[in-house]
Write a structure and sequence with these properties.
Helix content is about 35%, strand content about 10%. It is mainly alpha-helical. The structure holds iron/sulfur cluster (2 copies). The site of one iron/sulfur cluster has 11 residues, from loops.
Length: about 150
Amino acid sequence: MSDLTFSCKMCGHCCYGRGGIVLGTKDLPRLLEYFQLDKESLLNKYTENMNDKPCLIVKDDGYCYFFKEGEGCTIHEARPDVCRAWPYFRGNLVDSTSLEMAKEDCPGIIKDVSHAFFAHDGYAYLVENKLLAYNPLVDGRALIVSEDELPPHE
Ligand code: SF4
Ligand code: SF4
């Protein structure tokens, strides 16, 4: 990631919405350690099943259970990989229309960045931070992408 493609404005918009925060392979162990809970307790307390995958629950206002107005993510050091990866999700890396729509929702994405530059910069970020996922049965599909799916370099 470079600030040529993204610079978070801390608006919290990406923490809004139900079912988007899938707990993948690396997330559960990290959260178990953070909360010092057993797996069943953690899943019962903080997740619901969406398409056979555990997702973080949301509050009545529609924001993630762990989002606090004025403070942001209250579990920042233990947040799931999809939260670490946004806005470099598969859809935005492989599809220019998806990226243009994401720019409407996320003021942190640099508005005039080209799709190819964003995609390769974002992919490098995912690799560098070990955020790529490989198993569609357990991981969020947003993190499953291969380099040959990216648009050609400019
Ligand atoms: S929507 Fe974008 S700018 Fe706003 S908090 Fe999320 S990543 Fe940052
Ligand atoms: S875990 Fe944190 S970063 Fe992720 S959606 Fe919830 S509040 Fe936002």
